[in-house]
Amino acid sequence: MVEQRNGGNHPTATNGAAGGASGVYVIDASTLVRRLKSLYFHWREHREELWGSCNAFVVATPPPSDDLRYLKSSALNIWLLGYEFPETIMLFSDKQIHFLCSQKKASLLDVVKKLAEEAINVDVVMHVKAKNDDGLTLMDTILTSIESANSCILGHIAREAPEGKLLETWTEKMKSSRLQLRDITNGLADLFSVKETGELTNVKKAAYLTASAMKQFVVPKLEKVIDEEKKVTHSSLMDETENAIARPDTIKVKLKRENVDICYPPIFQSGGNFDLRPSASSNDDHLYYDSASVIICALGSRYNSYCANVARTFLIDSNATQSKAYQVLLKAHEAAVGVLKPGIKANDVYKAALAVVEKEAPELTSNLTKSAGTGIGLEFRESGLNLNEKNERVLKAGMVFNVSLGFQNMQTKSSKAKSQNYALLIADTVVVTATSHEVVTLLSSKAFKDIAYSFNDGEEEEDERAQVKVDSNRNRNEALYSKATLRSDNHEMSKEELRRQHQAELARQKNEETAQRLAGGTTATGNGRSSSRTSNDLIAYKNINDVPPRDLMIQVDQKNEAILIPLYGSMVPFHIATVKTVSSQADTSRNCYIRIIFNVPGTPFSSQDPNSVKNQTDIFLKEVSFRSKDPRHISEVVQQIKTLRRNVVSRESERAERASLVTQEKLVLAGNKFKPIRLTDLWIRPTFPGRGRKLPGTLEAHDNGFRYSTSRADERVDILFGNIKHAFFQPAEKEMITLLHFHLHNHIMVGNKKTKDIQFYVEVMDVVQTLGGGKRSAYDPDEIEEEQRERDRKNKINMDFQNFVNRVNDLWGQPKFKEFDLEFDQPLRELGFHGVPHKASAFIVPTSSCLVELIETPFLVVSLSEIEIVNLERVGLGQKNFDMAIVFKDFKRDVLRIDSIPSTSLDGIKEWLDTTDIKYYESRLNMNWRAILKTITDDPQNFIDEGGWEFLNLEASDSDSDGSQESDQGYEPSDVEPESESEDDGSDSASLVESDEDEDGSEEEDGSEEEEGKTWEELEREASNADREKGGESDSEEERKRRKMKAFGKSRAGPISSAPKRPKFRR
What's the pTM value of the predicted model, to 2 decimals? Predict the structure, then answer.
């Protein structure tokens, strides 16, 4: 029976009638003809070097098996015919093709006769074997036919052992004949190596299924197991993952179940036992996820018999050694993938990876796997396409590779035996394109931030904090308590020290990047906005004959957008764009005055018209005033001029903004392709213009973008997927709205407003509530029912938005949208902080790629990839708030300031910045960034020579200044205050922050000079009396500040355990 496997461009086999009727299969004629030609051309062209100089070759397919196996014979069946024909012998010669098979298979193959004769002028001979026949007579007939044709060399697949009685008999017949036998494995491997478009589509679908299984099932499953500290075995994870791949709909993949399969049973390894070979298997040991542990997961799936593979390593609370090793492996893997393109040799791929390891970590060279992967397609490992150091095969467009690199037999110091041995593995499926390559398993992230997890018990952290011993003098100078922990058992560095080291490394990298960018002159040069129309373009009348005859009084010509003013007995027209202001005023004599002021060059704060600057010799009218006894007419004229001027300015402003817009492609509506994804009853920001009642609208996802429209025909906005830079989904938690927000690459028009940010939202509850009537009890049933309705409404709205987001994410996951790299991002509220980005305080929240504030307008969206550095300003003792200055890589862009951030958020912000690899500095004062950036851009070389951004390093500058002041006398520990030049100065030189122990010590030592038994209150009282006797002078400003700082220092000496606990499990 034919196995139901569909390959390449072939359609899926259609089943026959139910009730035990035999299946009916269709062989694609065009594909068969095309591939028969390719087979014979390749055989005749490369007969000597790849096909063993054979004059004929035979392919024998074994009986079906439930085991996963990859055979060249089965691959040829699927590649040529679309299905696997078990227990079938096919012999190809220059003049004939022989099939030895059962009657049922012969009837299915009958279509090949005519097609083969027309395509390659070869006769097809069918040898039908009866059910109980051993086939010896038919085999003799086939062998005799090629022996009589003087075909002395017969090619066969020597590496495949015969299975079943038919193939064993055939092998004995071949060996006993007079024919010379040669292996044709290399010829078939080269034939399969370059894939057609349909084959590549199958590979990409298999890759999408594999990466989705890793992202949608494996990663969440591992996170849940580790977070809940469950005990599961590797084999049980293998079974669950295999079921997820076999049922694509459970992982949001819309592929038919009958077309998918696994390449091999999923591999899960942990606990020190690692095997990086593809033949490895998942054992029955429990998943090990203790500190410094490593988990390796490898998945492979097939679509229409075409394979794809992905492998990821997950680090649990990794130490510095493991983290560095993974980052080196990631760089090596990216280097190997980066060189894949047509024309290079296979060994160049491995050499690129090896070069990275030798440069970054030469001690790990011996641990690197000896191959960078293999070709992949109908077979999981295609022979002849090994990416090792010896293979000099030239790569071609259409080849597909499983690029797999790993470090094996690695060791690390750990108190737990299962964490001492570890390995690392990364694998992706990569297609070689016409000019470069495409990573088709990119959906599954391998970035360090996405595979490294921190798993620490909160109580353990508190115990470790209690063991930290820090010198009291150092504690007095600490501005804020750090969340860092110190592990004394294995002598690991504290989190604060690791953060400092990481920031130092980031500073070095940032200075290098900035130096390269400034040296290359790649700083952005503005937005390229075109200038608006000049007054020369605004012409009211082309000649004097066009001026209509009017009475000698001020009149407004709405049609020609001009005002007619009587001057010396003539009506002189002025275009409305030349008018700056117009006003009217009445006096006590019932006279009314109108005053018109025009735009004149040289006027302060007036906009410069290029024509006025060009025509400096012209005479300009600055203003005119008229008196009238008709106040009603004057009022009407003023109103008409103001209205006309406002309309013209608005129109020209909109026209100028539209002229600067980037031309975009048209929205392709879904039509009959698929039903658009729809979300109804949404409000939009910015709103459409107009004085009418605002209407809600519907947001639809079409073929290449979104469309928002209301019931009004002119209220419509199209947002193309290619123009979306960031997409956000923020459900209502403590806010009154649930929203979708899009931050765009290029501006679009919403009505007559030009914007890069567009938002769609729904109010989850009434923003305005009625405040009337008497007080209602907290146990009022109506009140409880109303609150429940509000909760249900909020949950329903959030769920509707979530479903819309999930469906759009699935749409964006399709291969044609992969280049946009789109996915809805959700703000991380637990990392948020309050600040003032514009004029009002707002709650600012980080996401995985941005820093956003999406509730208050104007919106704040800052891409982390565009940030050069962050400077935390006004950070110091006694400050309740601090500021954040964000410097962008484009130095022509203004520095973004977020003011008045509470000091309690400082440590969390520093930890977030460090986690996202953003270099930050601290300063006690606000910086004049406009002058600083001008200095950098004017003389970039001097900026580079002086250390780049290190002039902001507060710790380095403090240490330098302290060293210069105290280098002569050295450090001498003493509790005695230093002598000063005068008594007044001596009091000011005391430490601003003192501990209780210091105060007690100073009391004891000064006891010989002061009266014994006096308390601080008595001494303070005596000092106050002495001040009054001297004249009642008030305390100086410096003394008040000193006492304030002293009191602040005492209040800061709180218990160390008051610091907030870290989450139990975080990424």
Answer: 0.50
